[in-house]
Specification:
mainly alpha; globular; 98 residues; 2 strands; two-stranded antiparallel sheet
């Protein structure tokens, strides 16, 4: 968890980490990935950062889907991925988890 806090507390490190995460999600530079790929990536990243694995509530999952894939196409753009990540970070900060 300390590693996550160190990255999140430094805007430059945070943006670099999010860019790197996106590159792994879209290696062919298509401009999108799938919601399932984002979910799996988030689980792996949380584990790597020492954060507890947590299954979101149905409401949290739906809210995340609306941010990541607002048109319901099954595709997540880089812009929406970034919005989702920043939204999640802000929620964790507000809850005192970061």
């Amino acid at each position: 968890m300390d590693k996550a806090k160190a990255i999140i507390s430094d805007p430059t490190k945070l943006e670099a980490a999010l860019e790197e995460a996106w590159k792994k999600l879209d290696p062919q530079n298509q401009g999108f990935t799938t919601l399932e790929a984002v979910r799996e990536s988030l689980k792996a990243q949380a584990k790597a950062l020492g954060m507890p694995e947590r299954e979101g509530t149905p409401e949290e999952k739906e809210q995340a889907r609306k941010i990541a894939d607002p048109e319901g196409t099954g595709k997540v753009t880089k812009e929406n991925f970034m919005k989702l990540m920043h939204s999640g970070i802000e929620k964790m900060k507000a809850a005192g988890k970061l």
